[in-house]
């Protein structure tokens, strides 16, 4: 999962505009690449221009070398001005030359032309003994080509040095022109590409704007699915998640409405009875009769409190408000504690209450109070609907090979017909035999058990008790270990 960007207060940072981020991530690299490309194009053009000017300078040097010869035992150079004028390459540049004899003596040209530096290598670009170098001459930068030219006649032979220098005015003017044209072309390219990117981003994000408009213009009560075809394939998982959330929200609202309707219906009866009993008490003058009515009010109040508590428990579980408090708990301790709490109720009905549990702790991942409520509801129902002298047993087993932890409550009571076992987990649903045995029951106990089981990712099944009598409730909790933490 990618890291969450935090602000200075530790909370998640507020993300800016998607359009601006896309434009930044596209245009900024494009700008950098364009700058690098402009630099590369500029220097490549300068190298090409230098190569062309050097070739022209070498041509001038060779033209001059062709006029160098040996006459009467001396090196001479026949260099009229018109010859120099013929190999000038640019009106902006000025040419200087020097012809040195076999022993380095001046034959013709400018005597103070800078000599060839010792560390200048021979040029490999041309099939000639030529060296190119930069120097300053009369306060101006010049580029000089130095060519070694063999000369000979019948009496002597040797190597003459021909140097031709050219000022850099023409090269610098060409460099400025190349730079200006490069920048102009790159700026035009960047502007055109940036404009296309801006329109492309705007066009690509248009489906998201349509989705935004679709969601904003919906009625408050409209929680139907959003059409995934409105957006691109990459955004469809987000729309699918939104639709899934809409469905969950619809279910939650429907559950709340159902809960409110059921709660108001169930609470109306005890409240009406309380109102009637209070009115009877107000009209009664006999103290003994009034005490009897007050006693009935107390019983009705206890029943209403019990119903309200169960309704609140059911609402809390359905809304998942207890998930954050879950952790490793010992199911042994919870089962033993509930057994001790309800032992007196079993003794009063002469019921044989037993517990079969392993010596080692059965640790599961869950919520202690919710699990206590689960075990208490199951055991209370088993005791309540088991006749005098019956049997109720609790069984706890840690299964092999990480298959989980099994908890069972087995009784010899009324049982539940097989065709009604799927219905008894519905809030307020009660089996006919149970209503006859306990008319004041709420029908919420097993609904609470079912929701707690679901909260813990467990499974619950109902079976006949031993010998086909009574009921066996089996709950299988997932295994808990280091891998589940």
TrEMBL record:
Q: Which InterPro entries has this protein been placed in?
A: 2CSK_N (IPR013727), HAMP_dom (IPR003660), HATPase_C_sf (IPR036890), HATPase_dom (IPR003594), His_kinase_dom (IPR005467), HisK_dim/P_dom (IPR003661), HisK_dim/P_sf (IPR036097), Sig_transdc_His_kin-like_C (IPR004358)
Q: Give me the reactions it catalyses.
A: ATP + protein L-histidine = ADP + protein N-phospho-L-histidine
Listed A to Z, the keywords are:
Kinase, Membrane, Phosphoprotein, Transferase, Transmembrane, Transmembrane helix, Two-component regulatory system
Q: What is its EC number?
A: 2.7.13.3
Q: Which segments cross the bilayer? A: 22-43, 183-205
**Cellular component GO terms held in the UniProt record:** plasma membrane
Q: Where is the HAMP domain?
A: 202-254
Q: Where does this one sit in the cell?
A: Membrane
Q: Name one GO molecular function term.
A: phosphorelay sensor kinase activity
**What region holds the Histidine kinase domain?**
262-481
- Chief localization: membrane
In terms of Pfam families, this protein maps to: 2CSK_N, HATPase_c, HisKA
Domain of life, per lineage: Bacteria
**Per its record, how is this protein called by name?**
histidine kinase
Source organism of this protein record: Massilia cavernae
Q: What is the lineage of its organism?
A: Bacteria, Pseudomonadati, Pseudomonadota, Betaproteobacteria, Burkholderiales
